[in-house]
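User: Before I run my own analysis I want an independent prediction to cross-check against. Here's the chain; please return only the C-alpha cells and, at the end, one sentence I can use as a sanity check.
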Amino acid sequence: AEKLLIKSIPIEIGEGLGMYPVIAGISKDLRFLFVFAFPHSASMASDGVAFNIYDTMTNKLTLGYKKILITLAYKDNISSSNADRENIALIAGGGREMKRDKTLFLLNVLSGNLVRLSPKEQAAMTPCSSPDGRTILYAGSIEGAGYEGFFEWMKKGNHNIYSIDIKDRRIKQLTNSGGNFDFSPICINNESFVFFRSNLKGNISMWKYENEKEIRIIENLVFSNDESYPVINYYGHFDISNYADIK
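Assistant: C-alpha cells:
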C-alpha cells in the first residue's frame, strides 16, 4: 500500500516559497532517506537547499537538527559507509559557487552531532567514504577570494584529492593536479580509488590512484550534452552522474 512520507508545501502568498522534497540518497542499511527540501524557486535552490533525513524506523523527518543545514542539491555532496551506519560525510554551505563556503562535515544521523573535518581556509567538494569507514576522500583547494573570478580560481591548478582519517583527523594530500582541477574521488577499496581531472581547456580525463601513483585510464570525456553551449560544469561542480556510472 502507498504511504505519504513527506508532504510538499505549496507557495502561499506572503508566507514564503513553500517546499517540495527530493530524495537525494539512502543510507547503506536502508534505514535513512537523505532529503533535499527545495523551495519553489529554481534560482534560490541553486544557492542551497535545506538538508533533512527521514528515519524509516521512527517515521519522522528531522528538520536540520539543532539548526538548519544548507547544502547544494548535489547527490555527490553526501557519502556513507557500510561500516559506519551512524555517520555520513556531508558538504554543507550555501552559494552556488564551489570556490568558497563549502565545508566537509561528519554528521551523526541519530544525534545530529556535526563535526567539521576540512580546514577553515579550504573549499571542499565530492566526499567519498571508504568501505571500512575509517577514511573520507574529498576534493579541495584554498578558498577563492570574494573579489576573485570563478574561472580564475579554477585556473590556479591547486585543486587536489585529499584523505582524512576519521579517528585522528589527519589530512593527507593524495593527488598532484599539476595545474589542473581534480574532483570526484570514488573508492574502489580501502586503498585505491578513481577520480576525474579537468585541464584548463576543459579536457576531462579519468584516473586511478593506487600505491601512491596516478594512472590515467581514459581522456577526452564529454561532460556536455549541448554542442552549441558546451558547459562542462556549473560554477565548479562537475555532475558525473550524467556521464559515468561507477560501482
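Sanity check: The mean pLDDT is 87.
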